[in-house]
Please model this.
Amino acid sequence: MPLLEPKPAALRPGTVRSASPDRVPDGLAEGTPAALREGLSALLGAEKVLWKVSDLVKYASDASPYRFVPKVVVVPSNIGDVSAIMSYARDNGREVVFRAAGTSLNGQAQGEDILVDVRHHWTGIEVLDNGMQARILPGTTVMRANATLARSGRLLGPDPASAIACTVGGVVANNASGMTAGTTRNSYRTLSSLTFILPSGTVVNTADPAADESLARSEPQLCEGLMALKAEIEADAELTARIRAKYEIKNTNGYRLDAFLDGATPVQILRGLMVGSEGTLGFISEVVFNTLPLERRVSSALLFFPTLAAAAAAVPLFNAAGAMAVELMDGNTLRASVSVEGVPADWAELPRETAALLVEFRAPDGPAQERYEQAAVEVLAGLDLIAPVASVTNDFTRDSTTISGYWKARKAFVTAVGGSRPPGTTLITEDFAVPPSRLADACESLLRLQADHGFDAAVAGHAAHGNLHFLLAFDASKPSDVERYAAFMDDFCQLTVEEFDGSLKAEHATGRNIAPFLELEWGSRATELMWRTKQIIDPAGVLAPRIVLDRDPRAHLRGLKTIPKVELIADPCIECGFCEPTCPSQDLTTTPRQRILLRREMMRQPHNSPVENALLDSYGYEAVDTCAGDSTCKLACPVGIDTGAMMKDFRHQRHSPREESIAAFTAKNFKTLESSTRLAVATAEKLGDRLLGGITGLARKAVRPDLVPEWLPEIPGAAPRKLPRTSRTGATAVYYPACVNRIFAGPDGHRTPSLPQALVDVSARAGKPVWIPADVAGTCCATIWHSKGYDEGNTVMANRMVEAAWKWTAGGALPLVVDASSCTLGIAREVVPYLTEVNQQLHRQLTVVDSLVWATEELLPDLTILRKTGSAVLHPTCSMQHLDVADHLLTLAQACADEVVVPDDTGCCAFAGDRGMLHKELTAAATAKEAAEVNSREYDAYLSANRMCEIGMDRATGREYRSVLTELDQATRA
Model:
C-alpha cells in the first residue's frame, strides 16, 4: 500500500442518522447478482457491464421525484449490443429500460432490472443537404446538435429548457417540445426518418424504401396487428375525431394514436408510434430531422403584470402579433430566480401576486423585425403593466446579453424553484395543456386547487400553446404528505380533463406519475387500444413496464424518493443533470449529479452499514480523485452548485495533519521549490522521457498516485532562467508571469520568444509598456494548494500573493496583468476566502486583468497586423468560461488567422494544473471528443492561453498548442 494512501472512512458522514426506508438494502452491497452479471458479461464483454453498488446508486435517480435501483447497468456500443440485450431479457424473463441524459421529470429513465445507458457511445451529428436535414445519434444533446447546425443557419424544432443536457433520443422518445415548438415544430412533425430496434431485435430504418417489405418478412404478425388496429380506428368516426381533437393542443400522454391515421403502412405507423413512446416500444438508434431556419434577428421583452390571470389574458394578443415565444412566470418563480446568476436581486421583493410574460419575436431580416416590433408596440399600448421594482423596464430589446438573461431565468424554472424548496422535500414537476383560449381560467383554477391542498406552488409555462408547468414540494418520508399529494393529483387530473378537456401531459410524456390517470383522459376505448398496441409490438413486456401503461391506481405513489440532507453546498440539488455534459469525468467515473447521489445514499444508510462501506471504498477514486475541480458544473447548474468545491473539501478532509504541514512548508518555501522544479525540468531534457517516467512511476507507487505527478512525454523544456528586463518607470500595468510560465517553456523551446517576452514586447509595441517585479519568484496564485484541498498551504500563499500584488501595483494604482487564465481566476476570486481581514481589504483595491482582456482591449486597437496564419483552432479553457473571457480568445485569434475554429465538442481538458499528470486517464477521457474533432483536419495554429491546458491538449491531439499571445506577437513583429 502507498505510504500516504487516504483512508475511505475519512469521508464517512459524521451526522447521527437512522436508516431511511428507501435506502439500498444490504443485499446489494456486493452489487449485481453473480448470475446476471456473468450472463451479461459473457454476452457483451465485462467492460460493458456496470455492477458495483456505486454503479447502481449512480443510475437510480433521474430528474424526477422517483427512485428505483437497477439490478445492473449495461453500456452498449452498437446496435448489435442492444439487440443482444433485448434478446437476453426476452429469453430470461427480464425487463429493460433505456436511459440517456436522465433529465426526465417523470421517472422514464429509471428501471428495476436491466438499465441500458445509451448516452455513452451514441453521440454524433451529420449535417445533410446544406443543413436542411441532420442525421443524429440518440446520445447527442440538443445543444450540441444545434451548435453544429448553427454553422448552416439551421436548428432543430424541439427546444426544451433542458437542451444543455437532454439528448435527441430522449427528446424524440418523449416528444418533448419546449418554448417554441408547440404542435407544429415538435419531433412528430419534424422527423424525416428514424432507425429503431424492436423488442424482438429487428432493426427498422424508416427511410429504407424496402423497409415495409423487410418488416413483413421478419415480423408478419406485428404488421398484421398494426394494420388491423388502423382499420378498427378508421372505422370509428367518433374515435377518429376524438384523436384528431386531442392533438390540436400539446399532448404527450399515452401512445400517439394519430400515427394510425397518419401512417399508411406498418413502418409509417411505427415511425409515428416511436415518437413519445418513452422507450416502451423499441430503441431509437438514429434520427434524421428536417431542420428549421435559425432566425437571428431577435426582439424580446419581459413584461410584468399584477396577477397571473392578467398575464394569461395578454397571451392571445401576442400570439396574434406573431410572437415566436410567449413564456409565463408567476411570482414564486420570479422570486426564486434570484438564485440564478445575472437575475436582478430586487426580484426577491416582487409582490406575491406578480406575474410576467417573456415575449420574443424572431425575424429573418431587419424589415421583418421592425414590423414585429411595431406590432408589439401596439399590443403594449393596450396593456396595464406594472413596474414594482427598479429593475423592471417592460421594454422590448435587441440586446443579446439582456435577452440571454431573460431566458436563463425562465429556463431555470425547475432548478431554481426546486433549489429553494424546504430542505428534505421531494420535488414534483407537473405539465399540462389546455386550449390557449382557456389559459387564464386554468391559471385561476390551478391556484385555487393548490391553496385547497396546502401547496404553495410555482407556475410557469409555454403560454402561447396553453402549456403550463407547476412545481410541488413535499416530504416523501411522511405518509401524511404523500397522501396530501395523492389527493391533489386526483383533483388536478379531474379538473384538467373534466373542466378544460386538457392534456395531463403536454410535453414531459406520461411517465410514472400520470400512467394511472391515462384512462381518465383518453377513455376506456382509446386506452385499451394503447394496451393492444403495446402487446402487438412488445408481447413479452420486456421494455419499460409501468412507465406509460399501469393499471395500478396508486402507481404514481410508488418509489417516491426521500432527499436526505448532505453538505450545504450540494443540498439544493434536485438531480436535474444539467451539470453532466460539462463534467470532464462524465465518461470515466462519475458526474457532479452522481457524486451528490452517492453522498445522499450514504446519508440514507445506518452508520457502518455494508452498503455505506462499499460506497466509501469506491468514492475516493470515482468521485474525489477524478474530479478535475474545474467547477464547470457550477456554470451549468442553474442554482450554481459547485460540486468541484465540495470535492476539494473532501480532499482536505482526507489529509492528515502531517500532509497539511508538508503542504504549508512547500508554500512557505515555494521560491526554492520553483527554482528546483525548473532545474529538474531542464535536467529532464537530458535524461529522457522513458527514464523519468520509470522514476516517477515508482515514486507514485511508493507514496500515492494522487500526490506524485507522472512524467509525460508532452511536458516541455524549461523556461529561460531569467524573465525579460522591464522598467517600472512609465509602465501602464504590472505584469505577473504565472509560475507555470516561469518554469515551463513554450512548445517551440527557445526558437521563438518566450510567453513573458512576447507579452512584454507586444505591450511595448502597442504603447502600453508593462513592468515585471524582480521578486515574483516564490509567489503563486495558490491554485496548486487550493485544487488539492490543502487549506494551510493555500492560506499561506493566498496571503503572500495579495500582499505582494498590492505592493507591486502601488496599492492598486496599476492593473495586475496575469498571463494564465486559471491564475487570473485564482488571484481574482479563489484566494479571497483564505485571506486575513486586512488582506481582504487590500484585495478589494486590486484590479486583476487576464492577459486576454489586456491584449484585446488595451493592445489590439493600437497594433498593426503584419502577417496572418491561415487557420487556427482554439481551446477555450474552463477558467476562461468562469472569467467570461473566451470571446477575447476568439477576437485575438481572428486578428491573427484568416480562419478560426472553436470545436463544437470543446470542453475542460481536465489537466487542471497537474491533475492530468496525477490521473492521465482523466484528461484522456475529457478530451476524447474534442481531440477527434480537432484531428479531423489540419490547422496552421493550435491556440489557447494556459500552459498546462496546452500541454493537456498536446497530449490529447499530438499537436503543439501555444498561447494566442505569442501568435499575436508574431503577427505584429516587424
